[in-house]
């Protein structure tokens, strides 16, 4: 497969070089074109603005501005045209006297002023479909009122945007960009966002990650007149439903204060926007585990514990028109978070709590230079400084009773991480005839200093497996021949026997003979500090060639490289087309066919390099011990020097010398069609294949059928290697509708199939020496996914914004919970049972499994289990009250109307008042539907096949993080002036 791809890649690269090195020539056009660029009042380009040219007969042609604010309308006959340009947040531009001369393209640059009145636009309107590569109808564009429908909490916002993007991003997941930069750990506050674009222009070589799954967030600049806003959000347990997995109802309250102001610094030269907020949340963590009570009997444990969180943010943006051709935008963002009782929930008991504090500062500079009417250059620089500290409350050894409970002390210790990241972009766009050529590069770097005392206190693990059978009085059961009867016990039963027999003062050897004793001990020590510096570079060249007015060919080539791994010549060609068939004599074309192919590389994360430096056997020592002389010290842990004294084998981490950068080949074909009543429909087929995906393997695992290891000692050698693969097929169907100012909606349905042999860099195979059985369902194999959203502006200032998310179950892995092959991992999967009467066979609703795998039995596939489905109806209901005198209906005032829908509203009730007060109720999971997290997949767990938490919030699609309540209601009060 690799040789086939290599030869194909070389051919494509040669083709692209010939295409891109060719001198751009004007496309053959029978009619001249209208070209221009749209900027705001400070000279910043406006992306996605709608431009329509209408002739005297009423025939119209429409397009939208690209990522450089440039628009092109081809195929215009000579004559006079009325031109209209509009964008969310800006006043409408109209020019009814644009002259198009025969044989001479027209150039018109437009400036849009910021609109004063509140926007009524939600999701992008159903404009005529276009062959512009950046105006694909499968994209989702959210602005104005559509942003109001999204959650204000930044983590919930991230979740709902990932849900809208769908599983189209391949194994690397969705990628967030903020103003063209790679997003940090936290998204910007929602009230600083001007627009969100999802799945736009998926085969542009400007971006390294898959376009399907790309989420671009554009923040708002300041305004040329003073405006301000403030808000207060409130929720507590009396408004919410109870968590179905918690027996008690812990106190809960959330208070969120934020506000901001924007306005001019220098008239028509500089503006500012400042925003800040504070969130005070007495959140809950829900623990659902199986423990031992005071009489050492197995008992369920369920409790909701208060986990207070406090965070604050400050955001500042300055925009300046340096001169007629240069603009500068500067941003500063500060975020701070403190979290008590972190690290508990699900199986983790309160004793494992830790206190967490995060601080992040980001500075961004963007300079745009209009070098000529056809050339625009943009330089962007971002610097992020982040610091995270964690302190464990209890420093005693941790206890891991697999899939029953996690107890003992916190494994965190006193840990901290400092990061400095920078990102530098320089892009140039050249318009020449029918070509729009864009080229540039990105340089990123990170330096991290990590101090980690992780697992310095040690962790004892108790696993299930074979053991003597005991009666009700803990006496050994014997068979008819007098031999000790054996059976399978769970992890919690092994832990129970350990405590019971230790209380009876039995010796360690006898405890083990009776089925007690820890299964293994892992402990770390040495130098807690590790440092890493990593750089990566990506350069690209891309050409959008409008061959004819209804056919655009896009081609590009991207080159990527990074240090810390030996993987060079990562060349990523891209090729796409957009064709609008038919004639347009009766108006705009109503159908577009798009297709594309691209190669996308995924960077090797610096955290993996950091782990290999830390656990190299010298800087920090890590031991996994099975020696009874160490295990019998339970519940105390041996000193790390004692383990080194009797030469306990170490566990080391390394990067495989032949590791290559993972890459994805993606092909897409889509059809977009404008339907009656302003409906726009799109259908896309995506075929994705990823190669050289990351996984981990123990290179020194015991050889099959033998306890000997390849190196001769018992130390584990965990290697990151790039031997995985992923295959995915998707059918994505979307429908958008924009009906005036009152109603608009969007619907997405995704049919998906994904198979792989790894789910990430930390995925270990069941058998290190046989990977053939690893190819199965991917964790991305959610077969059906449905998203419905929109808004309805009812009379009397009432607005309703529903968001419905539904999906089928996500897969989960089923394991035996035992380390049968001695590799210190618990990744073994059972076999399909062929004899239900065989001792040890476990019959479940997922099938009958045999954990004692004998030769000839078929191992079950990876991710064999299917988790519960997800369904959530979320609703936002708001009522707006206006105050103050209404603006005049004079022509000057009407010239600042933000949109046609706003103008229509003004006819009915007059212009909006300058001060507004909005009361909002936001409901997550309106019908209180129980959405359970993926079930426990360990056959040795007393909770096998059961979920012990609800999926987080009303937006998460399968996350197992605990949620505060099943249904949550947030009350909001917003003031705008």
Strand segment count: 49
Summed up, the domain count is 2
CATH superfamily of the largest domain: TonB-dependent receptor, beta-barrel domain
CATH architecture tag of the largest domain: Beta Barrel
**CATH fold label of the largest domain:** Maltoporin, Chain A
Major beta sheet, specifics?
22 strands, antiparallel, barrel
Specify the structural class. Answer: mainly beta
Strand fraction equals over 45%
Note down, in words, how this protein is organized:
The chain has 10 helices and 49 strands. It has 977 residues and is mostly beta strands. It folds into 2 domains: 31-112, Immunoglobulins (Immunoglobulin-like, Sandwich), CATH 2.60.40; 227-393 and 414-452 and 528-615 and 651-892 and 894-976, Beta Barrel (Maltoporin, Chain A). The strands form 8 sheets. It has a 22-stranded antiparallel beta barrel. Strands 9-12-13-10-11 form a 5-stranded mixed β-sheet. A hairpin with a 5-residue loop joins strand 2 and strand 3. The longest helix has 20 residues, at 2-21. The radius of gyration is 31 Å and the shape is elongated. The chain starts with a helix and ends with a strand.
């Amino acid at each position: 497969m690799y040789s086939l791809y290599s030869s194909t890649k070389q051919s494509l690269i040669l083709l692209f070089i010939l295409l891109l090195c060719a001198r751009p020539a004007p496309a053959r056009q029978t009619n001249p074109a209208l070209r221009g660029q749209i900027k705001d009042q400070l000279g910043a380009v406006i992306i996605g603005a709608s431009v329509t040219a209408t002739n005297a007969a009423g025939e119209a042609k429409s397009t939208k501005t690209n990522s450089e604010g440039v628009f092109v309308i081809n195929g215009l006959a000579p004559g006079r045209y009325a031109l209209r340009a509009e964008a969310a947040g800006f006043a409408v531009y109209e020019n009814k006297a644009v002259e198009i001369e025969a044989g001479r393209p027209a150039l018109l640059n437009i400036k849009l002023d910021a609109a004063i009145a509140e926007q009524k636009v939600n999701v992008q309107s159903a404009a005529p479909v276009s062959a512009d590569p950046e105006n694909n109808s499968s994209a989702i564009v959210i602005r104005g009122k559509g942003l109001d429908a999204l959650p204000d909490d930044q983590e919930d916002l991230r979740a709902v945007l990932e849900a809208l993007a769908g599983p189209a991003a391949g194994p690397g997941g969705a990628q967030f960009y903020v103003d063209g930069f790679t997003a940090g750990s936290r998204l910007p506050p929602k009230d600083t966002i001007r627009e969100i674009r999802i799945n736009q222009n998926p085969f542009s070589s400007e971006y390294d990650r898959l376009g399907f799954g790309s989420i671009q967030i554009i923040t708002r600049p300041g305004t040329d007149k003073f405006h301000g806003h403030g808000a207060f959000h409130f929720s507590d347990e009396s408004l919410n439903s109870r968590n179905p997995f918690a027996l008690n109802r812990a106190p809960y309250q959330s208070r969120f204060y934020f506000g901001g102001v924007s306005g001019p610094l220098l008239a028509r030269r500089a503006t500012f926007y400042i925003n800040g907020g504070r969130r005070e949340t007495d959140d809950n963590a829900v623990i659902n585990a199986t423990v031992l009570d005071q009489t050492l009997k197995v008992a369920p444990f369920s409790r909701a514990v208060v986990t207070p969180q406090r965070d604050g943010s400050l955001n500042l943006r300055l925009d300046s028109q340096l001169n007629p051709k240069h603009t500068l935008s500067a941003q500063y963002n500060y975020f701070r978070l403190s979290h008590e009782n972190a690290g508990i929930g699900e199986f983790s008991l309160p004793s494992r709590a830790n206190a967490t504090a995060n601080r992040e500062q980001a500075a961004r500079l963007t300079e745009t230079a209009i070098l000529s009417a056809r050339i625009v250059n943009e330089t962007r620089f971002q610097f992020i400084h982040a610091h995270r500290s964690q302190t464990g409350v209890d420093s005693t050894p941790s206890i891991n009773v697999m899939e029953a409970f996690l107890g003992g002390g916190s494994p965190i210790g006193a840990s901290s991480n400092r990061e400095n990241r920078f990102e530098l972009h320089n892009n140039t766009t050249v318009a020449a005839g029918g070509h729009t050529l864009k080229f540039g590069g990105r340089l990123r770097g990170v330096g991290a200093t990590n101090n980690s005392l992780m697992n310095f206190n040690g962790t004892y693990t108790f696993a299930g497996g074979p053991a003597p059978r005991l009666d009700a009085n803990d006496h050994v059961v014997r068979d008819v021949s007098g031999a000790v009867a054996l059976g399978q016990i769970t992890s919690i039963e092994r832990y129970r026997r350990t405590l019971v027999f230790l209380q009876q003062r039995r010796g360690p050897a006898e405890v083990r003979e009776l089925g007690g004793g820890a299964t293994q001990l892992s402990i770390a020590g040495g130098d807690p500090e590790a440092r890493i510096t990593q750089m990566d570079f990506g350069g690209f060249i891309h050409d959008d060639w409008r061959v004819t007015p209804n056919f655009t060919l896009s081609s590009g080539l991207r080159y990527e490289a990074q240090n810390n791994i030996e993987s060079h010549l990562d060349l990523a060609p891209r090729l796409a087309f957009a064709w609008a068939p038919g004639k347009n004599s009766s108006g705009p074309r109503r159908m577009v066919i798009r297709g594309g192919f691209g190669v996308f590389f995924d960077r090797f994360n610096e955290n993996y390099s950091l782990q290999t430096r830390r656990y190299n056997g010298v800087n920090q020592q890590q031991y996994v011990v099975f020696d009874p002389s160490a295990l019998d010290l339970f519940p105390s842990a041996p000193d790390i020097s004692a383990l080194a004294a009797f030469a306990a084998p170490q566990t080391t981490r390394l990067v495989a010398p032949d590791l290559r950068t993972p890459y994805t080949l993606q092909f897409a074909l889509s059809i977009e069609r404008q339907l009656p009543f302003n409906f726009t429909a799109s259908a896309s087929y995506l075929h994705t294949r990823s190669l050289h995906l990351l996984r981990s393997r123990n290179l020194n695992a015991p050889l099959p059928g033998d306890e000997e290891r390849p190196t001769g000692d018992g130390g584990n050698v965990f290697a990151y290697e790039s031997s995985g693969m992923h295959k995915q097929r998707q059918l994505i169907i979307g429908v958008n509708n924009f009906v005036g100012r009152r109603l608009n909606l969007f619907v997405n349905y995704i049919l998906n199939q994904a198979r792989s042999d790894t789910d990430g860099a930390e995925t270990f195979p069941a058998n290190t020496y046989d990977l053939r059985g690893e190819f199965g369902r991917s964790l991305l194999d959610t077969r059906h996914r449905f998203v419905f959203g929109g808004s309805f502006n009812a009379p009397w200032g009432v607005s309703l914004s529903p968001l419905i998310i539904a999906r089928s179950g996500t897969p989960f892995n089923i394991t035996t919970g035992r380390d049968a092959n001695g590799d210190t991992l618990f990744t073994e999967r059972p076999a399909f049972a062929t004899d239900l009467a065989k001792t040890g066979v476990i019959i479940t609703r997922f099938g009958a499994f045999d954990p004692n795998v004998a030769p000839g039995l078929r191992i079950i596939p990876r991710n064999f289990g299917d988790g519960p489905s997800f369904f959530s109806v979320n609703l936002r209901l708001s009522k707006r009250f206006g105050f103050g005198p209404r603006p005049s209906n004079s022509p000057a005032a009407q010239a600042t109307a933000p949109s046609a829908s706003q103008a229509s509203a003004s006819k009915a009730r007059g212009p909006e008042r300058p001060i507004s007060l909005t009361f909002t109720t936001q409901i997550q999971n309106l019908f209180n539907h129980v959405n359970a997290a993926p079930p426990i997949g360990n056959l040795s767990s007393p909770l096998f096949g059961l979920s012990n938490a609800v999926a987080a919030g009303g937006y998460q699609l399968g996350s197992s993080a605990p949620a505060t309540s099943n249904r949550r209601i947030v009350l909001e009060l917003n003031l705008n002036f």
